[in-house]
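Case study 2.
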Amino acid sequence: MEAQSPTQHIKRTERISRSIVQSGTTIPFQGRNTKTEGFTARSFSLSNITISPILSHCLLDESDVDLRELAQLMVDVTNHFSGDISTWKLEPLDSYEDLILRCAYRLRERARIDHIGIVQDAGLLLILKRYIGRRGTVYCIPLRPIFRLKWKNPSLFHILLSFVKELPYIGLFQTDESRVDWIWQFLFEEEVYQNKNGKVFSQNHSVKFFGRYETIFSEYTPRDWRILVSKYRPRKPLHKKIKQLLLRVDTIDFNVPLRLSIREQHESLFNHSESFLIVDDEDSEFTGSYIEMLNECSNEYDIISAYEHTIADKENMEPFNKDTRYQLNRLEEFLSELNQLLRQL
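Prediction:
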């Protein structure tokens, strides 16, 4: 087991379950036993069947769903993902609901489809989901050690900062994101509260970090760090390891978290890409508040279970990416190694 380092609690959030930073590389958030990109699905539980429900609409109650259209799409999807069903025998009394549920059962048994989201967009489409495992870790990329390089090692500073700005993950300076904006409002208010009471907020001061570096980060124009790293000739062993790691970037799919979702996306605004985070430090107030927010969310919704998904409509049925798990594991290993190296700067 890795050594655990203590984390600081913000006094007025101690009632919320808090996670521990393990070796400063990754942060696990709690789960309970119990987005799809670009779509907002109106989802409901299907309760009138005996098998575990995988459809998101309650067919008997939703008049806005054309059951004939849905049944035809389910038949096409079942043919495509689970094999030919032309030999199926249907009885005259079989309803569209019966056919839809029969397709859903076959997709679960033959195509490993664990959940089907029904979306009314420009037309009817289905979001097919496969369970790939439980994810209870937040991967952090700290900025503080990078900013320290600005004068100590400008070449490495530009390489790393340009690389980080290229990543498709949420960051502590993205105040247009509701979660991030809420945390900063809380932290600014907490600082004022502590100052009024003659107390020091913290040694790992996220508010000061924000004031010092937010403009610098926002206005920084990324350079072609791939060219810079190819020309970079580090002398220190640590810097050599960072270069060697960055030379592997083209073998890593940084967008794979964007292709993950939770089971009932409409119940929670959480997206698995939000467990990849650009922070000031792993043990800062900002990071701690973010993890506490996820912990609170995980107490109400199952945001730990991860699903890969694909989209199917009458015009197009996209295959699942067979390498999703492998690509996700490689990404998580890469970010863990990067984090460890940055902490040594």
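Residues 288 and 321 are 34 Å apart (CA to CA).
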